[in-house]
């Protein structure tokens, strides 16, 4: 089901009711992809609670505490810190005024030291800093922070332990660098929901992958030089602090770094990149306990990576081969390397470094070393001297690529009893248990109830001249195909009111199509009917184009937005109401099949989970296409025409991978359309949708309590009859 058709409110009403009926059930942890989605979930939960009050007269309704947790960038109310441009700089600026050593200097009477009055206010109120039951969005948290002089970010972190419902990003549950800090105290009885989880496997892989470029290694070298100078300075001014750290490391790193004591949240860097169950529970090896020895160790590893990057051909190797080369060339064993990230965090705390954004390069190198030495399977190290698409431009890169999405999901499935994965484009649904390596208790694809036939999916296979259209490699640059695509869009622009969104398979293909249309005069014809806006790879330009597109639709001029599948617009932007009355998917958006990371992953899926390459590529492409066309349906009152402009969508192996809510509305008569037939269907559909909605039809999709009871009774009777038989 697409967004706006009731998935979220259904899950919220079911799970919160189950929590009320079963007090032994833990929290509801609702994971979303973006901050706007998080806010929508909290707004819908507030509406649910307000509706539920009608059934608990006299103020006896159950009390629920629900809140959203996001980064400091989205929750900070400090006027200077909140004005920082990036998330990393916001975190670093925050740490500079909240770190314990900074506050300790301020308490000693050092007036030159700046501290955060909001964090200080929350710390002084201590246990009394609590939220009353209710639903708190990010805006609500910031308002409370300003009113009571409490830091909203650390207040949200503190209140997670008392909340019934917590809404946050996937990363807080999947990425071990973040989940270890936020989710480790969650009880196993919690119910975890991953919403809009059609790309959850890609999120898992990104969380455990690290890319190193030449600039990263150069900056990491400068970081090590800075650390060496700071160590020498501390030896002269406070050598006892270094000796104290050494004694702690002898006793064991885990108790000092990975699990900080209460009140240490302000100084906690991102946690170990390794999954919690794979972290070594023992003391740091003796050869990196001393600060200067650890810096020398990292310098040797960095020199190996630089030599590794100085290559002329592509190399692909597994972790075991990589580690053997490291040991032979720079005498670093894999066990010592597993501690390089935690040892770095310990050293930076000892040196009282709060400028975390400046040390991102050395953190990436430590991430790389820790991950590659921990996992022997499910990873590949790919070194490339240049990008294949620009071979004349040297751009060396070393990529530690996670190939197994199930590695990141395994701790979630192991720890929590109930995990729900849902999305409107989770299709084909039976492939997700394979690539995430779990056995689902329930697997269901649900129909969507509609008061009218507001979806009209159509497969365009031919142009007006009856020549086939497709973005297959051998056809995509055919002038006849390009002309037919352009003529089809011109005809739709003259027929469909308001906004039309078009998605292409890549930026390169979109650029070539637009250039060809310009030479053919098709763009000029389009401009006679609607304004044309184009997505670019520049975020600012795309944002401006989107804003002007909406203004053109609002004023009645109408507009066409040319976009790219897998781009920003395809994933995060809604075209509801008049902003999207028609969406055209030009071709099937396959991934770049010559990508070595993709080839390595396909080989791993084939050997480990018996997933065929062709099946996965088609699955991934079709889910992206479904995500694109779903942009125009944002509620049950919305309507839109969906055009799949490629003859390959007519084939069963492609069509069957589309979500059920699309295939049930895809008529057989709409599977083999030419441009003139498409235009006729578009006119008829738009004319039908322009009619007012009949209120008598509402009862067809909304069930009353009596209807539900009757439905349940009929199911019980059917069940009893089957048992008697």
In the CATH hierarchy, what is the superfamily of the domain at 455-693?
P-loop containing nucleotide triphosphate hydrolases
Look at the structure and give the CATH class of the domain at 455-693.
Alpha Beta
**Residue-averaged pLDDT:** 87
Spatial arrangement of strands, main beta sheet: 3-2-4-1-5-10
Number of DSSP-assigned strands: 16
Gap from first CA to last CA: 36 Å
* Discrete helix count: 31
- Contiguous uncertain segments of 5+ residues: 253-267
Shape: globular
Explained architecture:
Helix 11 (200-207) crosses helix 19 (406-415). With 725 residues, the chain is of the alpha/beta class. The chain is built from 31 helices and 16 strands. Strand 13 (531-534), helix 24 and strand 14 (559-564) form a beta-alpha-beta unit. Among the domains are: 210-403, no CATH class; 455-693, Rossmann fold, CATH 3.40.50. The longest helix is centred in the first third of the chain and has 24 residues, at 214-237.
Task: Summarize the entry for a quick read.
With 725 residues, the chain is an alpha/beta fold.
Task: Give the SSE layout.
Layout: H1 7-21, E1 28-32, H2 35-52, E2 65-69, H3 72-75, H4 87-98, H5 100-107, H6 117-125, E3 134-136, H7 138-148, H8 152-159, E4 165-169, H9 171-174, H10 176-182, E5 191-194, H11 200-207, E6 210-213, H12 214-237, H13 239-251, H14 291-309, E7 315-317, H15 319-330, H16 334-337, H17 340-350, H18 360-374, E8 379-386, E9 394-402, H19 406-415, E10 418-421, H20 432-436, E11 455-460, H21 479-495, E12 499-504, H22 507-520, H23 522-529, E13 531-534, H24 539-554, E14 559-564, H25 568-572, E15 582-586, H26 596-609, H27 613-629, E16 640-645, H28 652-655, H29 660-663, H30 675-689, H31 705-724
Parallel strand pairs: 1-4, 1-5, 2-3, 2-4, 5-10, 11-16, 12-14, 12-15, 13-14, 15-16
Antiparallel strand pairs: 6-9, 7-8, 8-9
Helix pairs in contact: 1-2, 7-8, 11-19, 12-13, 12-14, 12-18, 21-22, 21-23, 21-30
């Amino acid at each position: 089901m697409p967004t706006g058709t009731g998935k979220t409110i259904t899950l919220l009403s079911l799970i919160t009711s189950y929590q009320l009926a079963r007090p032994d059930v833990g929290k509801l942890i609702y994971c979303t992809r973006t901050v706007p989605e998080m806010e929508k979930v909290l707004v819908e939960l507030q509406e649910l609670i307000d509706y539920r009050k009608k059934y608990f007269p006299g103020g006896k309704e159950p009390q629920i505490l629900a809140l959203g947790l996001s980064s400091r960038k989205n929750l900070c109310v400090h006027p200077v810190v909140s004005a920082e441009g990036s998330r990393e700089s916001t975190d670093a600026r925050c740490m500079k005024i909240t770190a314990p050593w900074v506050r300790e200097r301020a308490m000693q009477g050092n007036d030159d030291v700046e501290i955060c009055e909001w964090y200080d206010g929350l710390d002084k109120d201590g246990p009394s800093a609590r939220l009353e039951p209710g639903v708190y969005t990010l805006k609500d948290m910031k308002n409370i922070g300003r009113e009571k002089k409490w830091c909203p970010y650390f207040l949200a972190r503190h209140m997670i332990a008392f909340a019934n419902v917590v809404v946050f990003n996937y990363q807080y549950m999947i990425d071990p660098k973040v989940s270890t800090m936020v989710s480790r105290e969650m009880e196993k009885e919690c119910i975890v929901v991953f919403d809009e989880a059609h790309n959850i496997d890609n999120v898992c892989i990104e969380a455990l992958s690290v890319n190193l470029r030449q600039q990263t290694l150069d900056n990491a070298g400068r970081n090590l030089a800075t650390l060496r100078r700071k160590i020498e300075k501390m030896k002269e001014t406070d050598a006892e602090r270094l000796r104290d750290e050494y004694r702690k490391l002898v006793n064991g790193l885990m108790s000092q770094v990975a699990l900080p004591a209460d009140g240490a949240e302000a100084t906690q860097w991102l946690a170990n990149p390794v999954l919690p169950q794979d972290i070594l529970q023992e003391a740091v090896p003796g050869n990196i306990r001393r600060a200067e020895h650890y810096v020398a160790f990292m310098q040797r590893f960095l020199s190996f990576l630089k030599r590794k990057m100085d290559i002329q051909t592509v190399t692909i190797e597994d972790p075991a081969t990589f580690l053997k080369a490291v040991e032979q060339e720079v005498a670093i064993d894999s066990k010592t390397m597993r501690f390089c990230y935690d040892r770095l965090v310990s050293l930076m705390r000892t040196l009282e470094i709060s400028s975390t954004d400046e040390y991102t390069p050395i953190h990436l190198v430590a991430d790389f070393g820790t991950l590659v030495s921990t996992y022997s399977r499910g990873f590949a190290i790919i070194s490339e001297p240049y990008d294949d698409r620009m071979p004349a431009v040297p751009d060396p890169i070393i990529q530690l690529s996670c190939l197994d999405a199930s590695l990141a999901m395994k701790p979630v499935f192991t720890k929590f009893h109930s995990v729900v994965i849902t999305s409107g484009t989770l299709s084909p649904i039976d492939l997700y248990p394979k690539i995430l390596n779990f056995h689902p208790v329930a697997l269901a694809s649900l129909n969507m109830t509609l008061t009218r036939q507001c979806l009209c999916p159509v497969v365009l296979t031919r142009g007006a001249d009856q020549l086939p259209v497709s973005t297959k490699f051998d056809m995509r640059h055919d002038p006849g195909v390009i002309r037919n695509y352009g003529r089809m869009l011109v005809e739709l622009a003259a027929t469909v009111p308001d906004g039309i969104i078009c998605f292409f398979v890549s930026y390169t293909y979109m650029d070539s199509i637009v250039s060809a249309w310009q030479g053919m005069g098709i763009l000029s014809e389009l401009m006679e009917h609607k304004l044309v806006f184009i997505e670019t790879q520049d975020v600012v330009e795309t944002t401006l184009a989107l804003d002007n597109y909406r203004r053109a639709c609002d004023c009645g001029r109408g507009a066409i937005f040319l976009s790219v599948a897998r781009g920003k617009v395809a994933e995060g932007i809604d075209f509801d109401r008049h902003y999207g009355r028609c969406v055209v998917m030009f071709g099937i958006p396959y991934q770049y099949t010559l990508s070595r990371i993709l080839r390595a992953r396909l080989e791993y899926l084939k050997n480990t989970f018996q997933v065929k390459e062709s099946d996965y590529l088609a699955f991934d492409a079709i889910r992206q296409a479904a995500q694109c066309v779903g942009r125009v349906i944002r509620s049950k009152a919305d309507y839109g025409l969906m055009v799949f402009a490629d003859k390959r969508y007519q084939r069963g192996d492609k069509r069957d991978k589309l979500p059920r809510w699309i295939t049930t509305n895809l008529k057989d008569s709409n599977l083999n359309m030419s441009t003139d037939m498409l235009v006729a269907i578009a006119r008829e559909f738009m004319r039908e949708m322009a009619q007012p909605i009949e209120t008598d039809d509402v009862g067809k999709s909304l069930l009353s309590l009596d209807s539900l009871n009757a439905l349940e009774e009929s199911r019980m009777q059917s069940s009893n009859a089957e048992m008697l038989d």
